[in-house]
Specification:
- With about 260 residues, the protein is mostly beta strands.
- The chain is built from 1 helix and 18 strands.
- The chain folds into 2 domains: about 200 residues, tricorn interacting facor f3 domain (Immunoglobulin-like, Sandwich), CATH 2.60.40; about 60 residues, Zincin-like, CATH 3.30.2010.30.
- The strands form 4 sheets. An 8-stranded mixed sheet has the order 5-4-8-2-1-11-14-13, with no helix packed on it. A 4-stranded antiparallel sheet has the order 9-10-15-12, with no helix packed on it. It has a 3-stranded antiparallel sheet with strand order 3-7-6, with no helix packed on it.
Length: about 260
């Protein structure tokens, strides 16, 4: 089973972000032929790379990529290593450091403008990965069938809120101005289902009859605008649980009013 541990640090002054991802990859022994013994190719779009390396139980010392090739047309990146990937191990851990852009295209990890309670323009960051734009945020196998577990961490200014698919695991104060927020592991799922949001928010919340916490996030000072959406979400979630005979699979459901959203 593949796993991604993704760490992201956005910068709203430069509209960029720094990323670090550790990916556990299952070794397909029958595919380790020729140059493929020393290469890993993944999806990637509009990302810049700092370094990449892999390690395994057979070779815990990291092997650093000597070449990184980006294919703009195919939206892929290939990491070339000086040593073979061993066919004697079940998996390797690929560690990649990279950076990207908080774009204004409403795709990938992108920025939206809103007005705060003082009438000043501010920025929030949110994701739109469906169907092929997770690759704009981090190198991955961006195909629905390639499911994995995701662990997510974001470092943000201390006054901002950040939330993701799963409940918060811990929030650590790094300084007077920044904090690092980590989330519980997701179920095994496709890359396009990973989601996160960062900015200033108000929220209203309620709980379904089956114990799922539902929150509706809005720009600051506009939480009253989320009450109708909250009522609908709670009723619908309970109805779907009963109608389909299958409970909602996560412990919470977040909805957020994003000023710029492609749908």
């Amino acid at each position: 089973m593949n796993r991604y541990d993704l760490k992201v640090t956005p910068n709203f002054d430069t509209f960029t972000f720094d990323g670090d991802v550790a990916i556990v990859l299952t070794v397909q022994k029958d595919q380790l032929v020729g140059d493929l013994k020393r290469q890993v190719t993944m999806h990637s779009k509009e990302l810049c790379y700092v370094s990449a390396s892999f390690s395994s139980s057979a070779n815990p010392k990291a092997v650093t990529a000597e070449e990184i090739h980006v294919n703009l047309k195919a939206t892929t990146v290939t990491f070339c290593f000086p040593e073979d990937i061993s066919a004697d191990v079940e998996s390797i851990t690929l560690s990649i450091q990279f950076s990207g852009f908080l774009n204004n295209q409403m795709a990938g990890f992108y920025r939206s403008k809103y007005t705060d309670i003082d009438g000043k323009e501010q920025w929030m960051g949110s994701t739109q990965f469906e169907a092929l734009d997770a690759r704009r945020c981090f190198p991955c196998y961006d195909e629905p069938a390639r499911k994995a577990v995701f662990g997510f961490t974001m470092t943000v200014p201390a006054h901002l809120h950040v939330f993701s698919n799963m409940p918060e695991k811990e929030s650590i104060s790094l300084s007077r101005t920044s904090k690092r927020v980590s989330f519980l592991d997701t179920p095994k799922m496709s890359t396009y289902l990973l989601a996160f949001c960062v900015g200033e928010f108000d929220c209203v919340q309620a709980q379904t009859e089956h114990g799922v916490l539902v929150k509706v996030y809005t720009p600051p000072g506009k939480s009253a605008s989320g009450t109708f959406a909250l009522e609908c979400a709670v009723k619908c979630l309970d109805y779907y649980d009963e109608f389909f005979g299958s409970p909602y699979p996560l412990p919470k459901l977040d909805m957020v009013a994003i000023p710029e959203f492609v749908s």
